[in-house]
Amino acid sequence: xxxxxxxxxxxxxxxxxxxWFAGLIAELGQVFVAWQAGRLFISGxxxxxxxxxxxxxxxxxAAIGAFAEQYAGHYVxxxxxxxxxxxxxxxxxxxxxxxxxxxxxxxxxxC
Length: 111
What we know:
This is ABC transmembrane type-1 domain-containing protein. Helix content is 82%, strand content 0%. With 111 residues, it is mostly helical.
């Protein structure tokens, strides 16, 4: 089933790889944020300002990575659905009565 699906979305594999990589960056960013938050709580007499900047940077990296992963994943999903819709419609159109092609061409505003 996966092989068959890849025949429809094979050209989207680079976007899937980007989605995976963005998810990896988001997860690493979340681990970094947890680590920095721990350092912030146990910093004691150290200056807190540099730790806060690192924490904010980690939050931004995690958020951008999560957004990019979601965006790329949804792009692939909706593109695959559109491609499958076109394939199914083409197969249904072949099975339809002979006058269907003429109706679609002559119907104003539908195409």
